[in-house]
Design goal:
With 87 residues, the chain is α+β, with helices and mostly antiparallel strands. It has one domain (6-86). It contains four helices and three strands. A three-stranded antiparallel beta sheet has the order 1-2-3, covered by helices on one side. β2 (27-33) and β3 (36-43) form a beta hairpin.
Length: 87
């Protein structure tokens, strides 16, 4: 199970959603708005911005974020939530 880091909780609060560990296989978090599930985001087999910061430092994490943004432009609600909460 993915351990949600404070970065993600802070970002969720900023955009007005609630996050919980996902109940779906290979997903990191479930995103709720007004108590309703709106998306399951993040793949447990891949790292995200807060994980990179924790493991490799801010400079490397910022580089990975830049590359992530280049690869993932507009991918619907789940993609938007992943960008907002995990990157």
């Amino acid at each position: 199970m993915y351990h949600i880091l404070p970065y993600t909780y802070d970002r969720a609060k900023m955009i007005g959603v609630e996050v919980k560990p996902s109940t779906k296989a290979h997903k990191k978090i479930d995103v709720y708005k007004n108590g309703k599930l709106i998306a399951s985001v993040g793949d447990t087999r891949y790292k995200d911005f807060p994980t990179y910061v924790k493991e490799a430092g801010m400079a490397y994490a910022l580089k990975r974020r830049s590359l992530y943004y280049k690869r993932h432009k507009d991918e619907g609600i789940a993609g938007k939530m992943a960008m907002e909460l995990l990157w």
